[in-house]
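Key idea: predict the complex, not the pieces.
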Amino acid sequence: MASNNTQLNLQDMQFYNDRTPAPKVDKKVLNKMIWRSCNLQICFNYERMQAIGWLWCMLPGLKAVHKNKDDLAMSMAHNLDFLNTHPFIVTFVMGLVLSMEQNKMEIPTIRAVRISTAAPLGGIGDALFWFTLIPIVAGMTCGMAISGNIMGPIMYFVIAFGVEMVLRYVLMYWSYNLGLEAVNMMTANAKEFTRAASILGVFIVGALTANYGGGTTTGIVFENGESPIVLQKYLDTILPCLLPLLFTLLMYVLLKKGWTPIKCIFLLLVIGIVAGVFGLLGSGYDPLVPVPWLTSVPEAATAMLF
Amino acid sequence: MFEVILLAIVTFIFAIDQFSLTEIIYRPMCACPIIGAILGDLNTGLVLGGTYELMMIGSMPVGGAQPANVVVGEVVAMIFAVKTGMDIDSALGAAVIFSVFGTYVVTIMFTIASSFNSWCDETCSKGDDSGVRKSVIADVLLLGSLFAVIAVVAYVAGSSIQAAMQSLSENAAWFMAGLGEAGKMMRFVGFGVLLKIMLANDMWGYFLMGFAIALIVGNTPNLSGAALIIVAFIGIGIALSNYFTAVAIKQVSANAATEDFSDGI
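Result:
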């Protein structure tokens, strides 16, 4: 995995070689991207979540705006950053990023704007779709299905999928044009804008560390008669989400030292399996080897805690 | 035989659909009638689909345990309901152990797919999109086939295999828990890469501030659902104020430079 000369160094990428703005992308390409956006989560994975799917959706647009081969390579490489957003409203981020790519903006700016837009939209999408639209549609159509009416599922599909596709379509065109209009503001003071975008990006990554990382907890509980000692509670009094913060910083330090992401993944894989053997992280299972602690609070004692 | 092949094919499609494609067809409301039509009992499909859908959106009290993975849950429950004539609650209950393996498959796939990233990194840096295309194909084939296998096992072996699956899942619990924990931690690598790109030495304060504000908002009961958007608004405020201050300083110093020049004359 050692980087060789033909491989571009992610850190060196600041500017595209060809910095003349490309002409406006035609509708055919945008529509192709809208259809592809259905496959945002196709290679969903733990490390960068929707990164590969995102690049897959963006490819038609990127190929249209980057005619220089090295620029296309750079663009593809940085569009593989960690990304997580809601699949039905991802086209908003796609349109915005495409307009920035088209104007050959500074690469750190594109990266920062992408993560700062995508992450907050994730939550909105869930609230809008799974917690609002789907319950309403299901409420209307489930009764029909249960009484044996085939129109129930058909209506359910048509409404839900229809709303989804309209959202994807409208957001794509809206944000693409919005991005093109905002370009003047972004490029007039490019240096200052890049710095402000990076500040927002760093701020959002800090927030993600707490918001997405919170699942990493220890389930270690020491039996202690009626008041078991719950290790995570003590950690939380030092700082909630302490483990996610420490792991993020560890990864940052290792990457700075020149570790490749894949090496970091293997390290975490080993840590995870070892944690499974000894019951160090997570809760509610029996570790492989007998250990002098439990991985979750015994049910009898749960009542005492609250 | 024909029935099994069709069942495997639709399970394959639902497995992909639960994350991609329409993200609607895999829902019990649409999937169960389709499976019902294949197994020759459309009506059971409609009833089970409608009932399961209402359970999922939380507007129907859940009797027993609910299947962990929806796709396996609906496919296996339909097989049991049609082939052995179980009622809906017991069919969904019998599907639970199968759906545990469905979530195992998802955990394993999300871990395997993490290794696709560096493969894509490498090919993309050469300006070649074949790595992305191959990753997509590999992911679809693996995920779909593994789910199809579970469906075929449930169809062929029926409920007789439940005890064996139960003990297998108990023995594998520590490993899958460890793998799941490793999976949850892998996003920290993604965060680390982002920080490496964006974090200048004087920006640590912004990172810690984002972390702290997310903790505060995330632990406030009425706000936790909208935590990220609220944090983003605060961040936009900070970034904009920084931007306009920097622009103002630039203009002031530009003006000062020209004044110095004219004074000199």
